[in-house]
Design brief:
7 helices, mainly alpha, 209 residues, globular
Length: 209
Amino acid sequence: LGDVRNLDVLMEHIREYLDGAKAQADSACVEWCEVIRSERNEKLTEALASIHSKEHKKWKRRLNNWILSQGPTDRLKDTLPNLLAESFHELSQLGDLSDPTILHRYRIMCKRARYELEFFQSMLDPSARHSMDTLKDAQDSIGVLRDRQAAVTSAEKYIEQRGPRESDLDVVREFIASMKRSSVAERATAIVVSAAELEPPGLIQKVTS
């Protein structure tokens, strides 16, 4: 479903651009949107097939059985602090967040750490809520930048695949320029949010007994 979500966001960016610029979608833009819708529907069909597959149902049963069992709860009290400490340590070791590749990995790791905290929230000190909120802010901020970069990549790929028909690609090119301007303005904000507001692992309190 991640691919479906990404294509929905791309369509939303196109609509926002057209509304904000009061621009009319030319033939190339209309064609591009149809390509996106077609790909989105294909991805949705694939995702639904996976969700309803026998393998997915087996995985859900195994997960449910694990959650309902008594044994893992005791083991988690021993292993959870190390699990959370490891996630926060990895976040602190990623290095230069001005590198788009590292910034993307940082967002994924923020998401993973946040999900770990949320899933085990009942076993954590209430102060861990602050870390969850901080991770979400970083994840969302970097996600906006990532979505714009993905929109530029998709538009440039469409132009390359479509060929040299220059006259009807103006709106798509203007969309690319708009996304790039927004990315430049938002990159610094994303880095500030992720680097300055995410507090160190010490915020994660001991697992309650």
